[in-house]
């Protein structure tokens, strides 16, 4: 163009300057700048702003400042370009100094908000806060940006300090913004301060109770803090307000974990229907959540169906199905799924190996479990974690290989925790192995821990072999530490089952028999038999491990009443049918 003697104008230079910035060539950039000076177009504001941006991108901040200082007239883009250049090149002090000069020149809030956002994006909260404090006439964007910056970086204390200031401003706002509250609720969740998050919601609920953005944050908070009833109630309230807006992916992912935890199968199926209506069934995260929900609601068939209909499967998808098969005692199916996963080219990770060893443990597949444990380390170069060693110890213990399990635990390269010894002690009690059990009890009592379950397990073991002096010693230790044993309770979706406490005491045998009759899983089964039609399968959930006597009793009950009884305890599923259990007594 220059060779043809055509004169570039104000529209030509910005495009050429942009190209120079993209090339990152300082020499060519200065040649274009010089040509603009020679042609006398440096009075054009648009060209000067483009030159500042160009020099900032090629790293020549001195040239950028020279252009800026030589401008007869500046606008907000001029200031913003120079400040951005300083920030992008790590010149934080000069960026703040320039911002101070800009304020004197009359530009403030718009650039200030941009600066706060930029500093937060680079995790420079010190300068972000300095700009925020200097800013006159802060608007809701200013507050939202700084609060969200603290939330994203995790500085919860300062976020709360800003919240105190925000409350004073909030009452004066004509239009209230849900984004601010969402950031603060998420901050509470991140720090585990769930009760404070709930209190916050109660204080700001007016006017925002139908906001989908806030509702999703609340669902996530309720699910993570274990307030499952509140999560379900919040979801139902959101559905009522959904007349004019669509529930989205975040809503679904917030409520499905709650359904999984309490085995709310009916609501889970309703949500599945919503997923189909919203065309979200192809989303991998949604599919994974459905797999978990159905697997924990006693429907392995639905779990497999969702899995097979997913067009895209990630490692979480495969691992979830392997875990599900393990929970139902279908170790052979879990092995086939793992093999299929490898054939599809999906690389198993440490969680996938944990899932397959878990499945082997709950199906008595000792050799297979050992083989996968060895493959994990030798073939896939994955270093076993404490969880992997614990699962292997559990595999050996459940299969009655108690001496091998004890040797394995003692030879572990990592320090075994109390839960590993507790699993071995539980197996010793099942297989009536008192010698190993006493050694394990001594190890458990050496832990200065507040694990009530292991203390109770050791106490029960000593009670079973008649060592009441040790029972008394352990109970005094429990009382001294003010530990509380979780009461056993079960529930069924047909109705409410109150908690039933049971304790192991030094009482007559007839009294012990009566205590066994009131175990919560038996009460739940009785309630289900009374309130469902003959032949209807029963699904019972229990927060603790089912006891051995109940396991035997339920096998007889399933045969007498001619029903399938599915028990989900803290470890796995037990499907009782015709007097047999799917676990094959490996539980």
Automatic annotation (TrEMBL):
InterPro entries in the record: DYW_dom, E_motif, PPR_At4g14850-like_plant, PPR_rpt, TPR-like_helical_dom_sf
One GO term (biological process): RNA modification
Family matches, as Pfam families: DYW_deaminase, E_motif, PPR, PPR_2
Residue ranges that the Swiss-Prot or TrEMBL entry lists as coiled coil: none
Key word Phosphoprotein present: no
Domain of life of the source: Eukaryota
Residue ranges of PPR repeats: 44-74, 75-109, 139-169, 177-207, 314-348
Keyword Repressor: no
GO molecular function list: RNA binding; zinc ion binding
UniProt entry keywords in alphabetical sequence: Repeat
All residue ranges annotated as the DYW domain in the record: 495-587
Protein name: Pentatricopeptide repeat-containing protein
